Amino acid sequence: MEKSISLNKQILIGTAIGIIIGYILNIIGTDTSSASSILYFADIIGSLFISILKMILIPLVFTSITVGIANLQAHSQMNRIWKLALIYFLSTTSLSIIVGLVIVNVFKPGQGLEITLFQDAMDSFEIQSMGLSEFIKTFIAGLFINPIKAMAEAKILPTVIFAIFFGIAVIISGEKANRVKELLIELFEIVMLLVTWIMKIAPLGIMALLIKLVAIQDIEVLSQLGIFISVVLLGTLFHGIIDLPILLKVFTGIGPKRLFAGISKALITAFSTSSSSATLPITMECVEKNLEVDKDIAGFVLPLGATANMDGTALYEAMAALFIANIVGIDLNVVQQIVVFFMAIIAAVGAPGIPSAGMVTMVMVLQSVGLPAEGIAILLPIDRFLDAFRTTVNVEGDAIGSCIISTIIMKSKE
Predict the structure, then answer these.
(1) CA 414 – CA 411 distance, rounded (Å)
(2) Pick from 56, 51, 92, 94: which is nearest to 305 by CA?
């Protein structure tokens, strides 16, 4: 009897088919009835897949964090995990921005590119401006809201904050909260069972999303912005293939081959959905089963990382700021680039809590060094394409962080 094709191979096959069909549709055009029909059904299937992932997201975030915290034996251990996570997030985000700034200073994308090519888009672009003080105020206010409302509206960060407090309360309550703790553990196990069911349709969902992604790309715009796209991909891939795997190897001994084989499903899902949050259920399954990360640590670090650890996003926003500066003929000095560095960190961490987050935070980065906010209009046609790559690195960074923190905590127990 022949063995059935593994889920990993099914996802790879679905990815390949999606890219091929999308590319063919891009070449022949999407105006024909057959092409429109394919895109229509791909849109339905892709939207359904993302909706299912989002459906399970809030129950997974709440149960995984509360169970993870409640299972920690002492407050000191929980405090250590929190501190390690914060140090890791800030370190890798800073490293990614440095990589981006170095590369963009070397290749100088945008110099010599005629801004008149994009004048119409810039003139019609509506600016959503927010100062740093207002941004921070809005961000902090968004952390502490009615948890029921936050869950109903699928707001991840306030749900994470409430889950942390709830988990701490379960610990402090001691034996009185044993039944609550057992119920949460059972709910978490049920949610993870649902995740395994969702994974069975992942190949089809990923294929549909990639068909749409590739088919609707404007090749002419991509070629006009080819140098910028190339340097962004260079920076993003350098951080994802060189920086992060080296950190993992140094702290855990896990090599790149095992890493990418273990989280391949999560990376492909991140690429096709462009959402760290939507990918979270699959990321958790990958790191716990394939990389043997302690489930309590993964349950705490990964949901937090999906909202606060955005290496790819921070790298992109810093590179985009210098790209726009090059286009408009403004030479940013070292001090201004340091300002971009810190603003990109703030923007990347704070983005999930604000409507139209990417555009609002990008405007904030640009205005911090006197760049025209209208320049964002230049990036809009290529944003979805590049978002797929930066989200993939975001998810990889979360997975590696959980591995490193789990290894450090486990070694300290020996």
Answers:
(1) 5
(2) 92
